[in-house]
Specification:
The chain has about 260 residues and is an alpha/beta fold. The chain has one domain (about 5-255): Alpha-Beta Barrel (TIM Barrel). It has ten helices and eight strands. It has helices spanning about 15, 20-30, 45-55, 75-85, 105-125, 135-145, 160-170, 185-195, 225-235, 240-255; strands spanning about 5-10, 30-35, 60-65, 90-100, 130-135, 150-155, 170-175, 200. α7 links the parallel β6 (about 150-155) and β7. It is globular and about 45 Å long.
């Protein structure tokens, strides 16, 4: 069985301090591929993601500016993201999007940064990795405005209408450890009905560790718990779901 963690932040100190152990535990859990996200804390996190991907055959990365940092999406910083986006280690753009739960950047700057990332993804034919929290309607509006299709809505927690619209736009939906939490019945209902060729899973490490590790530092090995719970929800063998998600990730990231 082969598992892929489609969204992790391997640059964080909690993971870097024991990185060899993190990678060994991932291998022991059958996690053979990881996408590490450059957009965590400005340009430095992108540099770290590129370095990590360059040092490990099993890792690819994204580049971008997180919506929390959208106030720093200056022409100079975006130019650097554009430069890095052509790197063969980069399989996606982002994460970018809208977060109305926190007030870390103005809505206007979040929208403008999101538009820029969407256009870059379209220009390079690389998938956009979207962060959307309490912003379902505006996220869909900007996708329709730019005409971008075929990306990923990571750590999906939106409603069923948003999920259905995303499928119409040829997007993939990725589920994190949240789907294992006791209060996530509505999310599990959506996860049950996602088309097989549009489902992904992720850790969002070091955040959102799944049950039974909730509250601990998350790491790629723990994606197996999320995958197992999703397989139960969908009433399919874990191996079947793992194979499907591997193929979905191979397709969306063009990672052969």
């Amino acid at each position: 069985m082969r598992l892929i963690d489609t969204h992790a932040h391997l640059n964080f100190d909690d993971l870097q301090s024991d990185f060899d152990g993190v990678m060994q535990r991932a291998r022991e859990a059958d996690v053979e591929r990881i996408v590490t996200i450059g957009a965590s804390s400005g340009l430095d996190s992108n540099r770290a993601a590129l370095r990590i991907a360059g040092e490990h055959d099993a890792i690819r990365c994204s580049v971008g500016i997180h919506p929390h940092c959208a106030d720093d999406a200056t022409d100079q910083n975006l130019s650097k993201i554009r430069e890095w986006a052509d790197d063969p280690r980069v399989v996606a753009i982002g994460e970018s999007g809208l977060d109305y739960f926190y007030d870390n950047a103005t809505v206007a700057n979040q929208k403008e940064s999101f538009r820029w990332h969407l256009r870059l993804a379209d220009e390079l034919s690389k998938p956009i990795v979207i962060h959307s929290r309490d912003a379902d309607e505006d996220t869909i509006d900007l996708l329709e405005e730019t005409g971008v299709t075929g990306g990923i809505l990571h750590c999906f927690t939106g409603g069923r209408p948003m999920a259905e619209r995303l499928f119409e736009l040829d997007f993939y939906i990725s589920f994190s450890g949240i789907v294992t939490f006791s209060g996530s019945d509505a999310l599990r209902s959506i996860a049950r009905d996602v088309p097989a060729d549009r489902i992904l899973f992720e850790t969002d490490a070091p955040f959102l560790a799944p049950e039974p590790h909730r509250g601990e530092t998350n790491e790629p090995a723990l994606v197996r718990h999320t995958a197992s719970r999703l397989a139960d929800i969908r009433d399919v063998p874990l191996e079947t779901l793992a194979d499907q998600v591997w193929e979905n990730a191979r397709r969306v990231f063009d990672w052969q």
